[in-house]
Amino acid sequence: MGKKVIIVGGMAAGASASARLRRLDEKAEILLLEKGEHISYASCGLPYYVGGVIADRRKLFVQTPEAMKTRFNLDIRTGHELTEISPENRTISVRDLSGHVYEEHYDCLLLCMGTMPIVLDWLKPGPNVFSVRNVADSDALRELATVRRIQSVALIGGGPIGLEMAEIFQGLQLETHIVDLADQVLPALDPDMAAHVHQELRRHNVRLHLGSKAVRAEGGPEGIRTLHLENGESIQADLFILGLGLRPASDPARRAGLKIGATGGIVTDEYLRSSDPFIYAAGDVIQAKNFVSGGEYQFSSAVAATRQGWIAAGNIHGLNLPYKGAQSTFIAKAFTQTAAATGLNEKTLRAGGFPHVSIHLSPSSHASYYPGASALNLKVIFDPRDGRLLGAQGVGAAGVDKRMDVLSTALRAGLNVFELQDLELAYAPPYSTAKDPVNLAGYIAGNAVLGLTEVTHWAPALSGAGENGALLLDVRTDKEFSAGSVPGAYHIALDQLRERCSELPAGREIFVYCLSGLRSYVAIRILAQRGFRVKNISGGYLLYQVLTQDGRLSC
Amino acid sequence: MGKKVIIVGGMAAGASASARLRRLDEKAEILLLEKGEHISYASCGLPYYVGGVIADRRKLFVQTPEAMKTRFNLDIRTGHELTEISPENRTISVRDLSGHVYEEHYDCLLLCMGTMPIVLDWLKPGPNVFSVRNVADSDALRELATVRRIQSVALIGGGPIGLEMAEIFQGLQLETHIVDLADQVLPALDPDMAAHVHQELRRHNVRLHLGSKAVRAEGGPEGIRTLHLENGESIQADLFILGLGLRPASDPARRAGLKIGATGGIVTDEYLRSSDPFIYAAGDVIQAKNFVSGGEYQFSSAVAATRQGWIAAGNIHGLNLPYKGAQSTFIAKAFTQTAAATGLNEKTLRAGGFPHVSIHLSPSSHASYYPGASALNLKVIFDPRDGRLLGAQGVGAAGVDKRMDVLSTALRAGLNVFELQDLELAYAPPYSTAKDPVNLAGYIAGNAVLGLTEVTHWAPALSGAGENGALLLDVRTDKEFSAGSVPGAYHIALDQLRERCSELPAGREIFVYCLSGLRSYVAIRILAQRGFRVKNISGGYLLYQVLTQDGRLSC
Questions:
Q1: ipTM over 0.90
Q2: CB contact (8 A) between residue A306 and residue B434
Q3: Which of A368, A401, A429 has its CB closest to that of B426?
Q4: What does the pLDDT look like over A175-187, one tens digit per residue?
Q5: Which chain A residues are Cβ-neighbours of B427 within 8 angstroms?
Q6: Does the predicted model carry a pTM greater than 0.90?
Q7: Rounded to an integer, what distance in angstroms lies between the CA atom of residue B367 and that of residue A59?
């Protein structure tokens, strides 16, 4: 026999690692422990299973323990939980379903225990209180939602799973509430991009309780009925779903004295080796390196976990493969909209004091004359000193996943915004435009880095404008302007600007906007070359409307 | 006034250049000449307009000369054609619609005349013979196809426009023929990927005449009726569409003594300046640099033309921006399938003697348990010495455009196949899989570069297999094998391979296949570690079936 490797956890990281290790080494003795009933099942598909989008329950099980055992010659034990690690003896204690505890020796240990849901002391899982963590939860929820006649649901936490569940429950005609402590859903997005998602949720009658802390629950023997918020409001519901976030399931590692990071994840070196030389760790249980910032953070991701599992297995086999870090790529579907992000967001950059500028655009997902095109709201963040790409976010009905994947790839390759201009992306009318939205983002950002335009944003523009401040200039058409505009804005349609620019004050700063930012850029160039001090308001009137409806601008 | 710049050609490159130049320079005198009636119209949308997918003719006109004149303060003259250039005098001769010829002086000239269709001496445009080059052609075709009761059409040339037209005419219930001199459609693809497109065309009853030279046409006063092929066959049709390719419209440049390349395009330096210091050129009229090979070639692309126009305008203004080259990114829709490519294909690499290896895969476009998933056929080509990405091709019903754009970006950034493994792409079940198809391609190719598997292909595998040659080994399940297999293949299901590998000959080479290549890779690892000499047949039985149906394998 070869060396004995124990892999703890049979989801993304552990399953990926055990298969890879066997492909590299037919001789190794590989023991895969999983505390649950299933391995490598489609945990990301659970919400869709609850809602019936995935009708066949068997489709959730990508791998069965039996099939994987046979194919990869593994010793797989489901219902077996790691309780203690003894690094000095290179042994672990394992508890099986009957409660029996036994020891196993390892030559090498790989920890892939993933995460645990964050819980509330006062709202424990119960007959009508659930998390959506495993197949058993989902079976129970599916039964509740589709067979029994419940009428309303409160989702505590507005993360991706919360939104997927909201879509599903709305589809089942339930009154649906989302409660979140933050003043936005989808924390990976900045508030200005989350505002697009809020608009979509409200359009589908989801009741949002944002910036709201749930503090107390009330109910009877048959379950919770009322959720009280700190602001005095209360929500009546038949079903409560907990989605408060996840924490690394690193407790046994901590007790064994392995180094644990500030985020609660196991600290590893770049080869995914923990502070003990015979113990590796991979997946959501580790504290990951952020590829873009270089910092350490907690990041739950099936993509990163799968990659880390693959790398850890290689390193256990003696290869020397570094894991280069995670970059927070995320995507979620919310009704007709897709929201996605990659890299650092502005909240993080601001908190870390990193120099950054963001630009917004809303181009067409593909040629506007070809059926099915829709506006794609993009935000791209870069370093104003050299144009290095730092992060991107997108919300829209079509083509968001494609652009975010292109931007993820560009970010990974270390491209700057000028290099986004050079990308030669696939264009035919059903797919894109001759300048793809990613190219356009590169042009807008590149012009800002070169000083051809200066970018401002709605909040500073509105607080900086006024009689003693800057002039707000609207360059849309007469028709657009009269249909609705920003209070106090002066209006000159772009096509009259050259002949009417004498109307503008010579010394005063001018903040220009149009619908989305294209015409205002032309206006900026006309005015700047005539000596005016001008800034382009990123996102234009489209973003103004979304932010206003979301209560994010006071004017 | 500032300097006088004349831009010749008002489509992608010329329109992009004139707007950019004005944004940079309010003082320049800019004259835009266009020989046609329209500028910057949606030429890529013409086939969809013919078919009625785009119902509103006005949607084709992205820009009108009047609107662009006003917005960018340009002197735009449509119906004015460049006839001669006199570099010594810095003048050009222009002929207007009335036939009047006049001279214009320039300080700087930018040539963006695009391409001319390649024509046949014996099949001139006529009442039922068309190219699809401009709005007038399309108006006539639309009338013929939708109003008059024609019954059949022959498309001469199987390029992207030919395929778009085939889809449209099939939708109108016409008997549709495609004739091409090459033994495949879509020359940007390799034959093994074009085979997927042929399958789709045949499934929709398009009659393919490939490897067929059209040599003679016959008809009466009301039009052509019969097309004769060199092989003796003939095609009866009511309508003939010419799509034989394009050549640079560089004749005036050639007559003026500007340097013209082997492809017929105007030669420029990397700043898009021609051999005359006061003349720039951009768009399909130039001989482009290939970013991947470093060679020069003819490449018609609205994306590249737009980018070149933008860069040339910057350089005319005195910026010093290099154009870094084109990379042959292409995409076309063929019925339910999308076909796309980027970079170098195998035909080109083989012809140029570049070392390369290609791999094929057919993963799911997104999580297979989520509705709408379909097989995505990918081919990725790389340098076996260091894994540098050289090109990629894809055909499938969903997600092809996204993966090709990711691969285009990776190619542009100079990534190798190992770096494709690291890409952190957006995953949720409606969008992708935890290992995205691009990651999977990186894993397969990376394993080949590292020697964990050796890749072979169907044609060499079939000619190398046999009693005195290699053994063909099928590792699919019993059920799959009995439903159809490759003649002469030995069968051991993967899950029995460890116990049955003594059945295999020790010294003989073994070529392994499964359905798509995943299980055969596991088999390769099992066998290689036991000392067998093994190769993986790229693309598996899926590709075998497609190639066999396309008549590309003799066995």
A1: yes
A2: yes
A3: A401
A4: 999 999 999 999 9
A5: 44, 301-303, 329, 331
A6: yes
A7: 10
